């Protein structure tokens, strides 16, 4: 095995991605034009699987019991690392691909196809893991709990953004639905006979707002009323609100969640409305493998792509990649596709633009070259694994 990856070998990777550019563009635009919501990504998953199957990857569908999850595997037959490239492909309600998942999934598939073209350079096993429901449902959390990432030495993906950054944090988060059951009554002639479930929801919001001055700076709590009653002249017998809670760590999130739940319980006691709480999956904070991110940055910069440092404070959300990063070495770098921010109509447009497609191809090249680094250089692979092992010892 060569000590380091040569420029010639990486030039082969770049050429391979370039040869796939037209196919990748068609795939990304097809998914962009036909957005599918979490756990409903039947056509998007099939579109990503098709070129991998055609290239000879072994395909597992219904991965981890999720109908729209998959794993495509190429085994080199030589000893080496297990490297997983993650694909996302779910869209946002009413906004389509305003988080650019059409680009994420296509970049990982294109990187894998490029590596298959230079398979003589590979060692170990290469996987593309299709992870549905990042936006709503935590597909990677479910797959993590099923052990899907346990064998991976390194996990990589990219995310489009307004800046190119190889390291960015991610908050722990959890959502919850508060369901209040009251008693209907005529709001004018017999209000005394009613129990207002809507009042319970409103008191919940007021209670949470009273807590905000006591939260630490990392905490975010935001919610919506999903059911406020059916008519103004009827005391609402049922009302419902959904909240999302975030904090720097799962440990800190546990404290926040307890306070928010207690606010809802207090609202239930105040109004007499019965409360049911449906808690979602917990998204863990992100553990960035800085060594692996450094290799990714070197490959970007070798292509002339400028990488900027992340902001020192704020401006971060949450993703189920955090749960994967608790299991193995993982990175979630960002590639600039324009002056747009995720979860906006403008970002959805950018995800189908020339700039978006260019960023996707840059990402595919960097992903493939970084995977090659780990296959070709045992020293780099050990450094990545040692960083993760040292992190685990501190937990």
Automatic annotation (TrEMBL):
Annotated Gene3D superfamilies: 3.30.70.360, Zn peptidases
Domain Peptidase M20 dimerisation: 177-263
Coiled-coil intervals: none
Key word Transferase present: no
Keyword vocabulary terms for this entry: Hydrolase
GO process annotations (BP): folic acid catabolic process
Gene Ontology CC annotations of this record: cytoplasm
InterPro entries the UniProt entry points to: Amidohydrolase, Bact_exopeptidase_dim_dom, Peptidase_M20, Peptidase_M20/M20A_hydrolases, Peptidase_M20_dimer, Xaa-Arg_dipeptidase
Gene Ontology molecular-function annotations: dipeptidase activity; para-aminobenzoyl-glutamate hydrolase activity
Family that this chain belongs to: Belongs to the peptidase M20A family.
Protein known as: Peptidase M20 domain-containing protein 2
Organism: Rahnella sikkimica
């Amino acid at each position: 095995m060569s000590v380091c990856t040569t420029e010639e070998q990486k030039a082969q990777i770049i050429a391979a991605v370039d040869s796939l550019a037209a196919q990748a563009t068609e795939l990304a635009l097809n998914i962009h034009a036909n957005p599918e919501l979490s756990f409903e990504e039947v056509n998007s998953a099939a579109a990503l699987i098709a070129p991998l199957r055609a290239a000879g990857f072994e395909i597992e569908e219904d991965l981890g019991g999720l109908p729209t999850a998959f794993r495509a595997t190429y085994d080199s037959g030589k000893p080496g690392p297990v490297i997983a490239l993650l694909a996302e492909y779910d869209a946002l309600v009413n906004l389509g691909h305003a988080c650019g998942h059409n680009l994420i999934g296509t970049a990982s598939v294109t990187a894998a196809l490029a590596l298959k073209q230079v398979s003589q350079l590979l060692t170990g096993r290469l996987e593309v893991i299709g992870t549905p429901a990042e936006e709503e449902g935590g597909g990677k959390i479910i797959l993590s709990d099923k052990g899907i990432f346990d064998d991976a030495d390194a996990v990589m993906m990219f995310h489009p953004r307004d800046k190119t950054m190889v390291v960015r944090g991610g908050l722990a988060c959890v959502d919850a639905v508060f369901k209040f059951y009251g008693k209907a009554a005529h709001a004018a002639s017999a209000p005394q006979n009613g129990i207002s479930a809507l009042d319970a929801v409103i008191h919940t919001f007021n209670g949470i707002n009273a807590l905000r001055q006591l939260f630490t700076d990392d905490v975010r709590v935001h919610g919506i009323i999903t059911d406020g009653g059916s008519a103004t002249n009827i005391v609402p017998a049922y009302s419902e609100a959904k909240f999302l809670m975030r904090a720097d760590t799962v440990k800190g999130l546990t404290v926040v969640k307890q306070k928010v739940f207690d606010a809802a319980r207090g609202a239930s006691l105040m109004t007499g409305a019965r409360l049911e709480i449906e808690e979602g999956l917990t998204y863990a904070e992100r553990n960035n493998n800085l060594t692996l991110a450094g290799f990714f940055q070197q490959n970007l910069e070798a292509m002339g792509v400028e990488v900027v440092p992340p902001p020192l404070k704020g401006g971060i959300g949450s993703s189920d990649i955090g749960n994967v990063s608790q299991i193995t070495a993982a990175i979630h770098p960002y590639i600039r596709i324009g002056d747009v921010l995720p979860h906006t109509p403008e970002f959805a447009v950018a995800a189908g633009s020339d700039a978006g497609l260019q960023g996707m191809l840059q990402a595919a090249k960097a992903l493939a070259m970084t995977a090659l680094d780990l296959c070709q250089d045992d020293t780099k692979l050990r450094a990545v694994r040692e960083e993760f092992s040292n992190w685990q010892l501190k937990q």
